[in-house]
């Protein structure tokens, strides 16, 4: 249990997919203009990332490794992720058309979100158990959601503030993202 808790905290804060691994920067910058969109994208990504992590583990250790088909790993992972995103998009379109409109193009872009593929590849690389895989995928998604919602809150606050004209818009967003990334590096501690 302690190992799973440490895995969760490590992937949410220390090895955050956005700030430590630099994965998922496109939705991080694109969907973080308001908190509701950021949170919705975080929830959709959480579902896709967790489910694709499970499917990745099952595919890797149930099919690819036993049959010696490791060379098909990347193609297989992309297919699994595409299917998970399509299912998520269909579900959201059916259950909440307003949310589907808000997320717009960014929902299908979860397929190309390198955070989802990166986590799937890291799961295979680190040779985790199924329970660890679920925790790893879920924690990575929670970290993604935490960061994108925090950043959205900061961007909303900045839009209400008076910013020098030269920094208005994307420049101040990138400066804020950099500052937030530096704050997250503090969770890693100091190396001796």
TrEMBL record:
GO terms for cellular component: endomembrane system; plasma membrane. The gene is rnfA. The complex is composed of six subunits: RnfA, RnfB, RnfC, RnfD, RnfE and RnfG. Its main location: membrane. It comes from Celerinatantimonas diazotrophica. It holds the Pfam family Rnf-Nqr. GO terms for biological process: electron transport chain. Keywords: Cell inner membrane, Cell membrane, Electron transport, Membrane, Translocase, Transmembrane, Transmembrane helix, Transport. It is found in: Cell inner membrane; Endomembrane system. Part of a membrane-bound complex that couples electron transfer with translocation of ions across the membrane. It is a multi-pass membrane protein. This is Ion-translocating oxidoreductase complex subunit A. InterPro entries: Ion_transpt_RnfA/RsxA (IPR011293), NqrDE/RnfAE (IPR003667), NqrDE/RnfAE_oxidrdctase (IPR050133). It is an enzyme of class 7 (translocase). Belongs to the NqrDE/RnfAE family. Its EC number is 7.-.-.-. The chain crosses the membrane at residues 6-26, 38-59, 71-93, 105-124, 130-154, 166-191.
């Amino acid at each position: 249990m302690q190992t799973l808790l440490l895995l969760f905290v490590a992937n949410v804060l220390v090895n955050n997919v956005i700030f430590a691994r630099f994965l998922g920067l496109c939705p991080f910058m694109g969907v973080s203009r308001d908190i509701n969109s950021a949170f919705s994208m975080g929830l959709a990504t959480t579902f896709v990332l967790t489910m694709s992590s499970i499917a990745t583990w099952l595919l890797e250790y149930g099919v690819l490794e036993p049959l010696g088909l490791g060379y098909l790993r990347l193609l297989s992972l992309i297919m699994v992720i595409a299917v998970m995103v399509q299912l998520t998009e269909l579900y959201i379109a059916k259950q909440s058309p307003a949310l589907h409109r808000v997320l717009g193009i960014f929902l299908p872009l979860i397929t190309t979100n390198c955070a989802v593929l990166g986590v799937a590849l890291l799961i295979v690389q680190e040779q985790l158990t199924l329970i660890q895989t679920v925790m790893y995928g879920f924690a990575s998604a929670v970290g993604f959601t935490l960061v994108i919602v925090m950043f959205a809150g900061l961007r909303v606050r900045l839009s209400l503030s008076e910013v020098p004209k030269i920094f208005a818009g994307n420049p101040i967003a990138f400066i804020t993202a950099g500052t937030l990334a530096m704050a997250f590096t503090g969770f890693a501690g100091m190396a001796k």
